[in-house]
Amino acid sequence: MHFDGTFEVKAPREKLYNLLMDPNQVSSCMPGFKGIEITSPEDYTIVLKVGVAFIKTEVKMHMLVKEAQSPSHAKLVGNGVSSSGNLDMEVTADLAEENGQTTMKWAAEANVSGKLASMGQRMITGQAEKIIKNMFDCLKTKVA
User: Fold this and answer.
1) Could you give the domains of the chain?
2) With contact defined as beta carbons under 8 Å apart, do 45 and 62 qualify?
3) Residues with Cβ < 8 Å from 106, sequence gap 6 or more?
4) Buried-most residue among 1, 2, 16, 121 (CB within 10 A)?
5) What is the DSSP string of 75-106?
6) Tens-level pLDDT at each residue, the chain (144 residues)
């Protein structure tokens, strides 16, 4: 599945970039956040409670920063494991600032397997879009 979009906030890009690269800050904005284990700022595992329709599960999502070019670019890869399936993803973000307004262009590729995948792409996509919106609303509040 592919997701992409833009996110705009009235804040310096350094501030948004630093927020995005802080595992504690960004993970706390993820709906269903249960906990985090940080090996380093570039290597951490997030525990999330997620659900699609009648399938509810806890996912351990291992995140690894693959590219970090402060304050303009980041690429992260993640691998999630749960009793209901697995999730592999890759997320890129590019930030540009103009007149105190930062625009982030982002893209994500996600592959879901197991029981979660059996729910169908349309149902999973709808749930993912809700999660993304809630996360960006939280980030906007934190960076403002």
Assistant:
1) 2-139 (3.30.530.20)
2) yes
3) 4, 5, 6, 7, 91, 92, 93, 94
4) 16
5) EEEEEEEETTEEEEEEEEEEEEEETTEEEEEE
6) 899 999 999 999 999 999 999 999 999 998 889 999 999 989 999 998 877 666 677 889 999 999 999 999 999 999 998 887 788 999 999 999 999 899 999 999 988 887 766 665 666 777 778 888 888 999 999 998
